[in-house]
Specification:
The complex is a heterotrimer.
Chain A: E1 6-15, E2 18-28, E3 33-37, H1 44-51, E4 59-64, E5 67-68, E6 71-74, E7 77-80, H2 83-90, E8 93-96, H3 108-118, H4 124-137, H5 153-165, E9 171-175, H6 183-199, E10 203-207, H7 211-217, E11 220-225, E12 228-233, H8 235-240, H9 245-255
Parallel strand pairs in A: 3-10, 3-11, 8-9, 9-10
Antiparallel strand pairs in A: 1-2, 1-4, 4-5, 6-7, 11-12
Helix pairs in contact in A: 3-4, 3-5, 4-5, 5-6
Chain B: H1 3-41, H2 44-59, H3 62-72, H4 82-107, H5 111-119, H6 124-155, H7 166-176, H8 180-209
Helix pairs in contact in B: 1-2, 1-4, 1-6, 1-7, 1-8, 2-4, 3-4, 4-6, 5-6, 6-8, 7-8
Chain C: H1 8-47, H2 52-66, H3 70-80, H4 90-115, H5 119-127, H6 132-162, H7 174-185, H8 189-216
Helix pairs in contact in C: 1-4, 1-7, 1-8, 2-4, 3-4, 4-6, 5-6, 6-8, 7-8
Classes of the chains: A alpha/beta, B mainly alpha, C mainly alpha.
Bound molecules: adenosine-5'-triphosphate and magnesium ion.
Chain lengths: ~260, ~220, ~220
Amino acid sequence: MSQPIIEFKNVQKRFGDTTIFDDFSFKVEENEIVSIIGPSGSGKSTLLRILMTLEGIDGGYINVAGESLWHMLWNDRYVPASNKHLHKMREQLGMVFQHFNLFPHMTVKRNITEAPMRVKGLSRQDAEESAEALLELVGLADKAESYPNDLSGGQKQRVGIARALAMRPAILLLDEITSALDPELVDEVLDVIRNLAKEQSFTMLLVTHEMYFAREISDRVCFFDKGKIVEEGVPEDIFSAPREERTQAFLNAYLGQ
Amino acid sequence: MEFGEIVSVLLQGAIVTIKIVAMALPLAAFMAFTFGLVRLYAPAPFKQLSILYIEFFRGTSALIQLYWIYFVLPFFGLSIDAMTAGVIALGLNIGAYGTEVVRGAIQAVPKGQYEASVALNFTSSQRLLRIILPQALVNMIPPFGNLAIELVKATSLVSLITIADLTFKAKSLADMTLQVGEIFVVVLVLYFAMAQCLSLFFRYLEKRLSRGLGRGGMN
Amino acid sequence: MIELNWDWTFVWQVLPMILSAAKVTLLATFLGSLLAICVGLIFALLRRGSSKTVRVTVYWLMEFIRSTPLLVQIFFLYYVMPEFGLSMSPLMTGVIALGVHYGAYLSEVFRSGIEGVDKGQWEASRALNLTSFDTYKDIILPQAIRPMIPATGNYIIAMFKETPQLSAITLLEMLQVAKIIGSENFRYLEPFTLVGILYLVFSVLAAYGIHQIEKRFPKEGFSLK
Ligand SMILES: Nc1ncnc2c1ncn2[C@@H]1O[C@H](COP(=O)(O)OP(=O)(O)OP(=O)(O)O)[C@@H](O)[C@H]1O
Ligand SMILES: [Mg+2]
C-alpha cells in the first residue's frame, strides 16, 4: 500500500487550558473519502482547520503528501514552518466552509477565478474557462455575473465548492457544508458532492451531520468524541453494527431511534 | 457695506477654507491608513508608536496642536508658514481619529473572509489588498464622511493663526462693519453648504462602493 | 539664538498661572455640560413629539448646529447678541455656545437611548394608564440612562477639549493664559506643552470617572425618588 496522503502523529492541540487533541493519530489514504461524525465540541472542525493551516498545533507531526505540514527541514532539523512552506503546502488543500465565506464584493465568476489567477498565475482566459466548466458542474452556469448576496444559500455553497475546486486541490476539506442551509436546499449541494465522489480522484475529508449522506458516499466513517476517534470503519459497520456504546448512543440520538 | 460686497469677501475666505480642506484631507487619509494598518499588523514597537500618535492627538485638542506646531516648532529651528502649520495640524488631528475608523472597519470584516483567503492560498498582502480592504473600505465611508465634516469645521481654527479663511474674513468684516447679523448668517450657511456637499458626496460614494455588498448576512 | 532645551525654572514659574486658569476651563466645561444635557433632552423629546413640522424643523436645526464650526458659533454669539441688547461675559457666551453645540450632539444620543428601551415598556405604561410625563420619568428614562452614559461622557470630554476655542473671545482659560505667557517671555514651548499635558491628564481622568459612573448605575435601571 502506498503512503497515506494525510497522517497525524501524536498531535496535540490546546486552546488555552482546554486540550482538544492529546496524542492524536490519524491517517487518510489517497483518494479515500472519510466522513467524520460526532458530538458538538469534539474537535471535528479543529481537525480540518489544522489541516487548512488555520490553526497551529502544540505538539506532534502532521504529514501531507509525504511532507511535514507544520514543520520544515532546516539544517537537518525540523523547525516550525515558515509562511513560504505553508504556502507551498496549501497547494494540496482546499476547503469548503459551513458559512460559505464567499467574497461579497466579487461576482461569482471573480470569486472562482481570483485565486487561480493571482495565486497560480493562470491567464484570465484559462481561469475563466475553467470557472465556466466548474459552474456548469455545480449547475450555476447562468449565475456567473451575479453577486453572492443575490444567491440562495444552496447556490452560495455550490459556488463555494466550485471556488475550492478551481485551485485543483488533491485534498478537499468540507466542514458541515449543509448545516447553514434550509432543509430543502441541502440536496442540491449534496448532489454536487455525490458526483465528485463518483469520480474517485479526490481525497475528501468531510465533517457532517447528514448520516445518510455519510453512509452513502464514504469509504470510511470515523466517530469522534472528546478529541479521540472512538470508532472507525466502513459505513455499513458503523451505522448498522456500532461496537462502542458511545457510538450507539450518538447514532440513536441522531437517527431518532 | 453692500450685501453683495460682503458675500464676495466671504466667498474669497471660503475658497481658502476649501483649499485647506483639500490639502489636509489627503494627509489625514494617509495618516489614517498608515497608522491604522501599523496598529493592526506591524510589530510591537511600531504598534506602540501608532498608539502614542493616536492617544496624543485625540487626547489634546486641535487648537493646542495647531498652536504648538505654529508657535513652538520655530523654537526648534523649524519655521513653517501658517498655512503649512494649519494643514499639518488638522491633517494629523483628523488622521488620528481616522486611524480608529480604519482599524474598526478592518476588524469588522468577518473572520470567515480571512479564512477563505488563507484556504485559497492568497499571500498576506493579497489577502489584505484584494479581500479585506475592499470590504472594509465600504464600512469606512460613512465615518470618513463625518470626519471630513469635522475637518471642515476644524479649519475655522486656522483663522486664529492669521490665515484669511472664511472665519477670519467674517471676523474682520464684523470688526469693520455693523452688519454682524448678516455676515454671520452668510458664514454659517456657507459652512453648512460645504458640509452638506461632503455629506452627499460620501453617501454617493457609499452607494457606488457597496455594489454587491448590500443586504449583508452570510456569504 | 533662542534656547532649545526645556527650562524647568520657567515651568515652575508658569505652572501656577496655568493651573489657576484651569479653574475657568473646568467651570466652562461643567456649565456647558449642564446646558448641553438640558438642550439635548429638550431636542430629543421634541424630535419624538407629535407635530411633524416641529420634528423636521428640530432635525434640520440640529443638523445645522452640528455641521457648522463651534468657533463661528462662538463669534456669532459674541458679535450678534449685543445687537439684540444682550451683552454677555465671555464665559457666559462660551457656555451657551458649548451647551447648544454639544446639546445638538447629545440629542442624538438621548433619542437613540430612549428608542432603545423596549417597545413593550410603552405599551405596559399605557395599559397602566400612566401619563406620558410619568412614563418618561418613571419608566423610560431610568432604563435609558445607563446605556447613554458612555456616549454622553465622550461628548463631554470632546467639549472639554474644545474649550481652548473660547480664548478667541478673550476668555482667560488655559490656552489663552499660556499664549499670553508665551508672547511676554518669547517662549512658547513650556506653556503650550504644559497645557497639552494638562488636557491629556484631565481627559484620561474624566474617561476613568465616566467609566466609574457607568458602573454605579444598575443594569436594570433604577427609580427616581
Ligand atoms: N479559537 C478557539 N478558541 C478557544 N476555543 C476554541 C476555539 N475554537 C474551538 N474551540 C473549542 O474547541 C472545542 C472543539 O471545537 P470544534 O469547533 O473543533 O468542535 P466541533 O466538533 O467542530 O463541534 P461542532 O459540531 O459544534 O462544529 C470546542 O470546545 C470549542 O469551544
Ligand atoms: Mg464544527
